[in-house]
Amino acid sequence: MFDFDGTVALVRAGWMPLMLDMMMETLAPLGPDAEALRAEAEDYVARFTGKDTVHQMNAFADHVRALGGTPLTGEEYKAEFMQIMEHRRSARLKAPANLLVPGTRELLAALKARGLQVYLASGSAHDEIVFESELLGIAPFFDGIYGSAPGRPNKRDLLRQILDSGIDGEEILTFGDGRVEIEETKAVGGLAVGVATDEAECLEVDAKKRGWLIDAGADYIVPNYLDEGLLEIL
């Protein structure tokens, strides 16, 4: 199972600083220490990375409320952020040639050649993920694509469906840059590769991401998929 944003695709690279900047417009006037407020926001944004954005925005609303402010709803904050993000996304999709984490296509081809079932699961909107996967030329590698939409399984649900099909937990291999997919994979006994890439060059490991992913239980940390020995190690 692969996450999408930051794991295989860079369409939304830099989304976290953008989200934190949006949050700080509301948080900064509510407290004397802007640095501490941003650090607290970064903690819950990272904790819910991999889930639908509304989870991060619900935590943001709780943060505003705890500081004595009057927040919007999580859904309203999500809509505001999606509008900001869409400007960046639309511009990048006009030049999609460099929007894959290095080595992604080769890794997916190698996994399919070994006979593995490969799934894509994301907290981003389902129709956007399907479109972007096709645009980036990686959709054919997946046996199923699962983005966020009413009635569609989230990452936990997808893992449960895979297990219910007769696959053992130890046969699960997950690649992700968020805590959610790592934690859910380890909960069923699977192997988890944390993709802690320093976007957008994706050549070095990002130290903060590395810490978050190790804390979530990642078995391995990689900045990209260029190491030819990765599959043999796994």
Task: Give a verbal description of the structure.
- By secondary structure, this protein is mainly alpha-helical.
- It has two domains: 79 residues, no CATH class; 138 residues, HAD superfamily/HAD-like (Rossmann fold), CATH 3.40.50.
- Strand 4, helix 9 and strand 5 form a beta-alpha-beta unit.
- The mean pLDDT is 95.
In short, what is this structure?
49% of the residues lie in helices and 10% in strands.
- What is the level-2 CATH architecture name of the largest domain? 3-Layer(aba) Sandwich
Query: Looking at CATH, which topology of the largest domain would you report?
Result: Rossmann fold
Number of strands: 5
Strand order in the sheet with the most strands? 3-4-5
What is the alpha-carbon Rg in Å? 18 Å
Helix/strand-derived category reads mainly alpha
What integer is the average pLDDT?
Answer: 95
Distance between the termini: 14 Å
The stretches of 5 or more residues where confidence is low (pLDDT under 50) are none
Q: Which CATH top level class of the largest domain fits?
A: Alpha Beta
Report helical residue fraction: 40-55%
Strand content: 5-15%
Succession of helices and strands:
HHHHHEHEHEHEHEH
Query: Major sheet, described briefly?
Result: 3 strands, parallel
List keywords for this structure.
single chain, 234 residues, mainly alpha, Rossmann fold, 2 domains
Walk me through the topology.
Layout: H1 15-27, H2 34-47, H3 53-66, H4 74-93, H5 104-113, E1 119-125, H6 126-135, E2 144-148, H7 155-164, E3 173-176, H8 179-187, E4 191-195, H9 207-216, E5 220-222, H10 230-233
Parallel strand pairs: 1-2, 3-4, 4-5
Helix pairs in contact: 1-2, 2-3, 3-4, 8-9
